[in-house]
Amino acid sequence: MARTFKSLLIVATSVAFFWGLTACTPNADVEPTRTPNLAGSLQPFLSPTPSVTPLPATPAPTQTPLPTATPHLYHVSAGDTMGSIALKFGITTNDLIAANPDVPPSSMSVGQELLIPYGDEKVAVAPTFAPLAIEISAPNCYPTLSGGMWCFIRAENKTGASVESISAKIKVFDLSGNLLAEEVAFPLTDR
User: Fold this and answer.
1) d(CA 11, CA 29)
2) How far is residue 1's CA from residue 100's CA, in Å, rounded to a whole number?
3) How many CB atoms lie within 10 A of CB 185?
4) Each residue of 110-156: pLDDT tens digit?
5) Which value, in Å, is the radius of gyration of the alpha carbons in the chain?
6) In which element (H, E) is residue 156 found?
7) Residue-wise pLDDT tens digits, 5-23
8) Are 186 and 152 in contact, with CB atoms under 8 Å apart?
9) Is the dihedral of CA 87, 91, 95, 99 positive or negative?
10) CA distance 118 to 115
């Protein structure tokens, strides 16, 4: 027992001795003052400071502009005739010849510019598109390992009319009826 006490006393004395030595070391946290050894001076300059950049406003949807009564120029291509050009623009051949009196109808050259007049008899009407009533199934949603969700919808067109640009808005609610997420989905063929 005396031997254990003696070895314990030696260990305790050694620890106290080394602990006391650490108090004698200089403070390592204080850096020495450095003196510059280069000639010259620094010139301060302004740098851009970070700031919150506002998002641009979403532009309001605009209607498709209707054609105006302004005539425009057409460049003659190979195989064009006055009749084919008039038919292409929905005007009469006489109106096209009258708008271009210096161009001989039988000898037009490729690349020549023709003035296409506005047809007075035509009234410009913007087309209106109405959504078709197509059958859409309830969404089938499957959670992913990453915490997301894949939702699939079946859209079936039984109207006989052509359909394009199909989209569906999917909303996910919690049990309390609070909206958790909302996304517009498009078919894979439209990507």
Assistant:
1) 30
2) 127
3) 14
4) 899 998 887 654 444 556 667 777 888 888 888 889 988 888 888 88
5) 42
6) strand 155-156
7) 777 778 777 776 666 666 6
8) no
9) negative
10) 10
Rounded-to-integer distance, Cα 6 and Cα 14, Å: 12
Full-model pTM = 0.31
- CA trace torsion 59, 61, 62, 63 (10° rounding): 170
Which burial class, exposed, middle or buried, applies to 86 when counting CB atoms under 10 A from its CB (0-12, 13-18, 19+)?
buried
Domain boundaries, the chain: 72-116, 135-190
Q: Are 155 and 135 in contact (CB under 8 A)?
A: yes
23 exposed, middle or buried (CB, 10 Å; 0-12, 13-18, 19+)?
exposed
Cα–Cα distance for residue pair 82/107, rounded to 1 Å: 10
**Cα 107 from Cα 105, distance rounded (Å):** 6
For residue 86, the SS3 value is helix
In CATH, what number does 72-116 get? Answer: 3.10.350.10
Please tell me the total number of residues recorded for the chain in this structure.
191
In angstroms, the CA 108 to CA 178 distance is 70
